[in-house]
């Protein structure tokens, strides 16, 4: 990385501080503030909006231009031309596989899709109405107990095995979370099926009937998984990295990522979008909803709109809208009322001064819920599918962090605003 300098000067006559400015291959330069502590200063950046927490070569986002690259490849090309296991190979290993590597990677994943049989008891500890995300957080965390060797994170072979186990088993965990929720028996993975088809089989097959996944829906799900696979240092990925920086085992790290993704401001938004569209109920109610979203005294947010980084259309939202059309056409649901409300809401919002001025555009969650719902996936499983997809990115980011020469335990500081020193008084003097 080429570098130049930044100088901080102080009005109070304190000595100026010079800091290196570093450049990556794409995107913003960064001011390297690591030496700032020696001068008695911290930076202050709640929510890390202006903070680069690491250097990474996995995913690049340009929020102003609405660009998203995985290892340099534009998301639009990957979603159109690749399958999810090839994209997972790209994220984790840095390159798209050739035909032999693709087959080998997919076969390895297929051979590890089963859970340890005793894990089914972890599911049974829950009430049937437990949210699938609560089950996934617990089951993935519990995997550390079934694979204790995965704690040996200094061992490259153990790291590779844990990464593959997570990638291979997360669809089974997600599908079984659903089956448990609806009171149906667990359906075992079928090694003859590809990744997305295997997941749909585990979700919708029952012992009483043969189930053949619709190839159009499988392709749509494949695209949804690719679009959600990674996204730079978002809240859940940063959670995975911070957890991993303490040396925690990979299952604990991914469980922490699932927990963070669950929030409605993050991965939980796709579920919240459907609830919002159902609440709107009719195109006639859209303007009222837009006014509520603009009203600062109202905590209501237009779910699926806005983004911490994108100040332009989220490239994934455009592809999700396109996938929506494909799936609804395939299923003869082009008159789906939710889709009509969503299209109308997007049009009205994008013409509204508030959204234009604040650069609020639909994000990946705005359309994904409509597609998943049309595919027969219940709303409470939407974030579980986001977690399924994002496990590829989390595993890639965790692996990069663990082996990075700058890796150290994450330990942010603070601006202290509490009491100055004071003495404890006996209780009868308080
Ligand atoms: C994901 O980080 C990632 O990469 C996340 C993700 C990934 O792939 O990992 O992309 C996945 O989480 C997508 C986002 C899903 N969340 C939602 O759709 C929930 C609705 N969106 C908002 O909660 C919000 O937009 C956030 C949380 C996504 C971003 O919040 P910010 O950073 O506060 O947004 P901002 O700074 O751009 O907001 C600018 C202004 C603010 O008003 P002012 O303080 O300037 O007056 O716009 C307002 C915000 O209050 N605003 C909204 C709004 N989003 C922001 N107003 C109404 N509706 C909204 N959706």
How would you describe this structure to a colleague?
This protein has 430 residues and is mostly helical. Helix content is 49%, strand content 6%. It has 17 helices and six strands. The strands form two sheets. It has a three-stranded antiparallel beta sheet with strand order 1-2-3, with no helix packed on it. The chain has a three-stranded antiparallel beta sheet with strand order 4-5-6. Helix 9 packs antiparallel against helix 10. The chain is globular. The N and C termini lie far apart (59 Å). S-citryldethia Coenzyme A binds at residues 231, 234, 265-267, 269, 293, 301-309, 358, 360, 363-365. Residues 231, 234, 265-267, 269, 293, 301-309, 358, 360, 363-365 line the site of s-citryldethia Coenzyme A.
What layout of secondary structure does this protein have?
Elements: E1 3-8, E2 17-22, E3 30-31, E4 59-62, E5 67-70, E6 73-74, H1 75-81, H2 84-93, H3 99-110, H4 120-124, H5 132-146, H6 156-182, H7 195-204, H8 215-227, H9 235-244, H10 250-261, H11 269-280, H12 286-294, H13 315-330, H14 337-350, H15 353-357, H16 365-374, H17 382-403
Antiparallel strand pairs: 1-2, 2-3, 4-5, 5-6
The structure holds s-citryldethia Coenzyme A.
S-citryldethia Coenzyme A is lined by residues 231, 234, 265-267, 269, 293, 301-309, 358, 360, 363-365.
Number of strands: 6
What profile does the largest beta sheet have? 3 strands, antiparallel
Q: Supply the helix-strand structural class.
A: mainly alpha
Helix percent band:
40-55%
What string, H for helix and E for strand, traces the elements in order?
EEEEEEHHHHHHHHHHHHHHHHH
* Average pLDDT score: 94
Small molecules bound: s-citryldethia Coenzyme A
Distance between the termini: 59 Å
User: Shape from CA axes?
Assistant: globular
Q: What Rg, in angstroms, do the CA atoms define?
A: 23 Å
Strand order of the largest sheet: 1-2-3
Counting H and I runs of at least 4 residues, what is the number of helices? 17
Strand content: 5-15%
Regions with pLDDT < 50 over 5+ consecutive residues? none
């Amino acid at each position: 990385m080429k570098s130049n300098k930044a100088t901080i000067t102080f009005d109070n006559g304190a000595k100026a501080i010079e800091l290196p400015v570093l450049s990556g291959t794409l995107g913003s330069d960064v001011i390297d503030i690591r030496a700032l502590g020696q001068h008695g200063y911290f930076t202050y950046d709640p929510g890390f909006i202006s903070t680069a927490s690491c250097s990474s070569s996995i995913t690049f986002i340009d929020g102003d231009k609405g660009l998203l690259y995985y290892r340099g490849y534009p998301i639009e090309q990957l979603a159109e031309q690749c399958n999810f296991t090839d994209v997972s190979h790209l994220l984790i290993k840095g390159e798209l596989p050739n035909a032999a590597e693709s087959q080998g990677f997919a076969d390895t994943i297929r051979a590890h899709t089963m859970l340890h049989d005793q894990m089914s008891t972890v599911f049974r500890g829950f009430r049937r109405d437990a949210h699938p995300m609560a089950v996934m957080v617990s089951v993935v965390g519990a995997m550390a107990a079934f694979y204790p060797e995965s704690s040996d994170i200094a061992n490259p072979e153990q790291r590779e095995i844990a990464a593959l186990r997570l990638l291979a088993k997360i669809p089974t965990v997600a599908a079984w979370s659903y089956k448990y929720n609806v009171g149906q028996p667990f359906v075992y993975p079928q090694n003859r099926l590809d990744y997305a088809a295997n997941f749909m089989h585990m979700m919708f097959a029952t012992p009483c009937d043969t189930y053949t996944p619709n190839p159009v829906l499988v392709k749509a799900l494949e695209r949804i998984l690719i679009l959600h696979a990674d996204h730079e240092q978002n809240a859940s990925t940063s959670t995975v990295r911070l957890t991993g920086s303490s040396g925690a085992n990979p299952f604990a790290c991914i469980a922490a990522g699932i927990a963070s993704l669950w929030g409605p401001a993050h991965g939980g938004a796709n579920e919240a979008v459907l609830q919002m569209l159902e609440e709107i109920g009719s195109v006639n109610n859209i303007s009222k909803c837009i006014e509520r979203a603009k009203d600062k005294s109202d905590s209501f947010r237009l779910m699926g709109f806005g983004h911490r980084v994108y100040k332009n259309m989220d490239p994934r939202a455009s592809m999700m809208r396109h996938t929506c059309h494909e799936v609804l056409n395939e299923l003869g649901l082009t008159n789906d009322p939710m889709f009509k409300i969503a299209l109308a809401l997007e049009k009205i919002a994008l013409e509204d001064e508030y959204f234009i001025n604040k650069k609020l555009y639909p994000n990946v969650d705005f359309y994904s819920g409509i597609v998943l719902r049309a595919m027969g996936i219940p709303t409470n499983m939407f974030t579980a599918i986001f977690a399924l997809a994002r496990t590829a990115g989390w595993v890639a980011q965790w692996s990069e962090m663990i082996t990075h020469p700058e890796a150290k335990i994450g330990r942010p500081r603070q601006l202290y605003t509490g009491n100055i020193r004071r003495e404890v008084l006996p209780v009868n003097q308080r």
